[in-house]
């Protein structure tokens, strides 16, 4: 057990990246015992930063071109099952397999973009985050109050609880059932348990710690990148909606919870939905606007850039929004027919006008401009433009549309329309006026339009079961395959993981 403690502590100290501060004095592993660690606020802050770094590494990787730390987490989530055309792209076979749910072809593939999709198929980083969060919650009590006040201890613990439950949310969204634990230095082998049980435990866990999070941070650089009480509300809304999709009991319990959380979220006056303009678009996706609830910072100014492939722009944009100065076509585009069903020609919608050029071309002239913060390297013919936008995990329109969906499921059409029309109004689009099942369809479409490129599309397909309908996905799934969990990702389990836990099994549909 002592060796486990030393190794885990060492891991997170070495990975700690405290905001824009790039330097850290690291003690040797054999010094991490007794009172040599967990002795100051700095120790807790550095450890917490190590937890955030692990999430950053999972979704963003590092900026070096074509290395083994490339990532494409959110783009892969968005592309699966989507209506996408390839325009002579080297990863077109991987994209085709994602669209058509040929996941084992990717699992056993050996191309560059197979590798990027394979990174999604491992839960290890999420369990690293869970393990470290559990440690911080236990060990931070050792720090003397002269260095870390009780209020600060509670706040750090609540941040760790948020990260723990965010990780469980992603594990269940990606793989279904999960191994669940919250004790520090856990070593006992456990089987996977039903994902609804995991969601219920996470909801209770986050609710118990939510009020220990701040309403806002004194340090403005944390805005949008460290969880607040509003962030916890958004997380619990997603936990409830995911549970509602798979529970065998009363779904309405979860829908009512979501509306209660939305009412609480509306009490925080620091957050509001911004009108869609070019300037606001750049502000929102930089990650620290009044819309942003939680995300992962990317900043070329501080050398904290993701790998090129981590951004949606790499695939769906071309110069001057992405790529080499000579790149005049986007690698991928949306199907002309299907995106025209979303953003209908002739109908007002500022998202269509501001976020795209040639949105319905279906070819390389398609230009995605939603992620418009960029940085440049090189000069002349070697000039390259990369994305400088944050990875957005939760923002206010996402939460509002979840609440609209919950209200519609409870047959409260007036509330559902009122919530959804907060988003249509900001987009300069026509308000929703119908009810019933058509209202539910329009709320789904509104989520698809508003959150396009943000990594929510496939989760929404699965959660709403619209993945069963060719109207909403390029590759509809049969009910029997859905029930057999064909919607999950293949789960890569290393030999070490299998040896440590004989209960571990992959996802039966794929593995």
TrEMBL record:
InterPro entries: SusD-like_N, SusD_RagB_dom, TPR-like_helical_dom_sf. The keyword Transmembrane helix does not apply. Belongs to the SusD family. The keyword Membrane applies. Residues 92-236 form the SusD-like N-terminal domain. This is RagB/SusD family nutrient uptake outer membrane protein. It is found in: Cell outer membrane. Residues 359-488 form the RagB/SusD domain. One of its GO terms (cellular component) is cell outer membrane. Keywords: Cell outer membrane, Membrane, Signal. Residues 1-21 form the signal peptide. Coiled coil: none annotated.
């Amino acid at each position: 057990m002592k060796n486990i403690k030393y190794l885990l502590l060492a891991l997170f100290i070495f990975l700690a990246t405290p905001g824009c501060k790039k330097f850290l004095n690291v003690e040797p592993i054999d010094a991490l015992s007794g009172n040599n660690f967990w002795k100051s606020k700095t120790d807790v802050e550095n450890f917490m930063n190590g937890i955030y770094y692990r999430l950053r590494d999972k979704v963003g990787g590092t900026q070096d071109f074509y290395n083994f730390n490339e990532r494409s987490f959110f783009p892969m989530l968005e592309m699966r099952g989507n209506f996408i055309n390839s325009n002579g792209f080297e990863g077109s076979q991987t994209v085709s397999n994602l669209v058509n749910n040929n996941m084992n072809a990717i699992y056993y593939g050996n191309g560059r973009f197979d590798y990027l999709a394979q990174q999604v198929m491992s839960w290890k980083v999420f369990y690293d985050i869970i393990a470290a969060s559990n440690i911080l919650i236990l060990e931070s009590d050792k720090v003397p109050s002269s260095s870390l006040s009780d209020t600060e201890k509670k706040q750090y613990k609540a941040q760790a609880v948020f990260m723990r439950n965010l990780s469980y949310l992603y594990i269940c969204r990606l793989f279904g059932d999960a191994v669940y634990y919250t004790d520090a230095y856990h070593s006992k082998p456990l089987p996977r348990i039903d994902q609804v049980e995991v969601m219920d435990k996470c909801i209770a866990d986050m609710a118990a710690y939510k009020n220990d999070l701040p309403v806002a941070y004194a340090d403005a650089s944390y805005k949008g990148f460290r969880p607040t009480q509003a962030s916890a509300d958004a997380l619990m809304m997603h936990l409830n909606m995911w549970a509602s999709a798979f529970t065998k009991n009363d779904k309405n319990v979860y829908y009512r919870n979501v509306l209660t959380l939305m009412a609480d979220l509306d009490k925080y006056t620091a957050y509001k939905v911004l009108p869609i303009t070019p300037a606001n678009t750049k502000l929102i996706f930089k990650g620290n606007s009044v819309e942003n609830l939680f995300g992962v910072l990317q900043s070329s100014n501080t050398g904290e850039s993701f790998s090129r492939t981590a951004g949606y722009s790499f695939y769906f944009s071309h110069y001057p929004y992405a790529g080499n100065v000579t790149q005049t076509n986007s690698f991928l585009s949306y199907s002309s027919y299907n995106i025209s069903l979303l953003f209908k020609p002739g109908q007002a919608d500022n998202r269509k006008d501001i976020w795209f050029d040639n949105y319905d071309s279906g070819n390389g002239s398609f230009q995605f401009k939603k992620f418009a913060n960029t940085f440049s390297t090189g000069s002349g013919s070697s000039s390259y433009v990369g994305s400088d936008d944050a990875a957005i995990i939760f923002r206010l329109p996402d939460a509002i549309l979840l609440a609209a969906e919950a209200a519609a499921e409870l047959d409260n059409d007036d509330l559902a329309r009122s919530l959804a029309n907060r988003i249509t109004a900001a987009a300069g689009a026509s308000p929703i006026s119908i009810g019933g099942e058509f209202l539910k369809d329009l709320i789904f479409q509104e989520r698809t339009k508003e959150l396009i490129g943000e990594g929510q599309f496939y989760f929404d397909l699965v959660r709403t079961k619209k993945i069963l309908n060719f109207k909403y996905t390029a590759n509809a799934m049969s009910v029997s395959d859905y029930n057999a969990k064909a919607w999950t990702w293949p789960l890569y389990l290393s030999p070490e993981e299998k040896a440590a836990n004989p209960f571990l099994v992959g996802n039966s549909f794929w593995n």
